[in-house]
């Protein structure tokens, strides 16, 4: 059983959808490791409404909005975009759209429009019915038991997010439930939940063996590729102090990964592709010279920022 890549703490359907969607998107975006610019163009245009809106922008208006975005990314106003500035902007963009999506979800989940999402409403939206498992009664079927445990974890996270102990979650609490990585008061709960699942010897840390879960090495064979990948992540991404185990703060970066790595990777990709004079930063001229590439990147959320006043309006 593969457990190293992502702990099962944020809900069965969310995990399945995220894993499947991310895997398919990654394969389409980088087939055989090669970047597909036309995939970015497809992501830019999106559905019919997005296509219509994109077509309506004149080249002049597109140019004006893009320049406005460039100025906002350039935090020190020196006329150049550095890796750090690009990465910070992309992370901000990720968070903005995550919050916007959570706000839209809140409306959909709030069936009776009382500005609160109850546990029953959450179940109805997710599963089309209210599900109630006995915490103390295990199920015989392995898949059903796995779902029961994940559903109970979701319920605990829901209850933790509910700070005022009301009948449901208000918008801020719903965001804490959906995105615990963005809310400080959820961190301790998420860490404790992960320790309960993975800290088998109860020492308050997660060792490499515990990180890899049920995997048992066969001394007669080489480790499979996924094990090598997970070991590399453990050693180079998560175990910051190189002591061979994950402490609570290191554990948090695994349990609830943020978008920093993705943003840094995209920032480097843009500089590698668009930096014409090899100074490791981008001028406005270099960006406008490669406008299509910039518009099909995470830096503009595949062009969506050109249609969102939050990003190109002067008061951002």
TrEMBL record:
| Keyword field contains Cytoplasm | no
List the keywords (alphabetical).
Calcium, Metal-binding, Signal
Q: Which superkingdom, per the lineage?
A: Eukaryota
Matches recorded under PROSITE patterns: EF_HAND_1, EF_HAND_2
Concerning CDD domains, the annotation shows: EFh_CREC_RCN2
- Tell me where the signal peptide lies: 1-25
- List the Gene3D superfamilies: EF-hand
Enumerate the spans annotated as EF-hand domain: 61-96, 97-132, 186-221, 232-261
State the family it belongs to.
Belongs to the CREC family.
Annotated protein name in UniProt = Reticulocalbin-2 isoform X2
The protein's organism comes out as Balaenoptera acutorostrata (Common minke whale)
């Amino acid at each position: 059983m593969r457990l190293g890549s992502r702990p099962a703490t944020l809900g069965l359907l969310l995990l399945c959808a995220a894993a499947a969607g991310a895997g398919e998107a990654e394969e389409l975006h980088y087939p055989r490791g090669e970047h597909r610019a036309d995939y970015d163009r497809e992501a830019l245009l999106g559905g019919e409404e997005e296509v219509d809106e994109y077509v309506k922008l004149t080249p002049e208006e597109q140019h004006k909005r893009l320049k406005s975005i460039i100025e906002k990314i350039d935090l020190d106003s020196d006329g150049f975009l550095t890796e750090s500035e690009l990465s910070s902007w992309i992370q901000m963009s990720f968070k903005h759209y995550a919050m916007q999506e959570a706000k839209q979800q809140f409306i959909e989940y709030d069936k009776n429009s009382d500005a609160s999402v109850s546990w029953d409403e959450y179940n109805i939206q997710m599963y089309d019915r209210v599900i109630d498992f006995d915490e103390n009664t295990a199920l015989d079927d392995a898949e059903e038991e796995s779902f029961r445990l994940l559903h109970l974890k979701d319920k605990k996270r829901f209850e933790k997010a509910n700070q005022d102990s009301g009948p449901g979650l208000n918008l801020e609490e719903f965001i804490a439930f959906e995105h615990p990585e963005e809310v400080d008061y959820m961190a301790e709960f998420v860490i404790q939940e992960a320790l309960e699942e993975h800290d088998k010897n109860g020492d308050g840390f997660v060792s490499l063996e515990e990180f890899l879960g049920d995997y048992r090495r066969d001394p007669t064979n080489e480790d499979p590729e996924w094990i090598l990948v997970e070991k590399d992540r453990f050693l180079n991404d998560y175990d910051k102090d190189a002591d061979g185990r994950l402490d609570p703060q290191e554990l948090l970066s695994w349990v609830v990964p943020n978008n920093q790595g993705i943003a840094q990777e995209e920032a480097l990709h843009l500089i590698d592709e668009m930096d014409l004079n090899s100074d490791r930063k981008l001028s406005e001229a270099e960006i406008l010279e490669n406008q299509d590439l910039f518009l099909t990147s995470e830096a503009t959320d595949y062009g969506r920022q050109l249609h969102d006043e939050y990003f190109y309006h002067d008061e951002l």
